[in-house]
Amino acid sequence: MTANGVLEARKRLGLKQKTLAELTGLTVDKLSKIETGTRGIKPPELIALSYALGIAPSELVGHPAQAQLRAAEDAAMPGVRQALEIFDRFIDNCRFLDALTALDEA
């Protein structure tokens, strides 16, 4: 995530600049400059922002591979959920068949 990642994360959480500024001890002006990339992030600010946003500091300073990995994981989740639902139905059917077999044998 780059400096714009701060903006994206803040919006994803539904936070206003003022709220995030209060949570981090930054001024709204400093936060605005960080979000637009016109000002860098100092180490203490990075820690405060990452804590407030629930994001690893490495994601905030621009490791695109991690951001891409997170996006890929998020994109894969519906397919994973669907596969798990199918598996659960399969297991339920197996249990049903086991119960029928047990009734036949009784």
Q: Outline of this structure?
A:
With 106 residues, the chain is an all-alpha fold.
Plain-language structure description:
There is one protein chain. Helices cover about 80% and strands about 0% of the residues. By secondary structure, the chain is mainly α. It folds into two domains: about 1-60, 434 Repressor (Amino-terminal Domain), CATH 1.10.260; about 75-105. About 15% of the residues are buried. The model has no long low-confidence stretch (mean pLDDT about 85).
- SSE series: HHHHHH
Helix content: over 70%
Quick one: CATH superfamily of the largest domain? lambda repressor-like DNA-binding domains
CATH class of the largest domain: Mainly Alpha
Runs with pLDDT <50, length 5+? none
What distance lies between the first and last C-alpha atoms, to the nearest angstrom? 63 Å
Evaluate the radius of gyration.
23 Å
CATH topology of the largest domain: 434 Repressor (Amino-terminal Domain)
Mean pLDDT reading: 83
Query: What's the structural domain tally?
Result: 2
CATH architecture of the largest domain: Orthogonal Bundle
Strand content: under 5%
DSSP strand tally: 0
Shape: rod-shaped
Main beta-sheet annotation: none
SSE diagram, text form:
Blueprint: H1 3-12, H2 17-24, H3 28-36, H4 43-53, H5 57-60, H6 64-105
Helix pairs in contact: 2-3
Keywords:
106 residues; 434 Repressor (Amino-terminal Domain); 2 domains
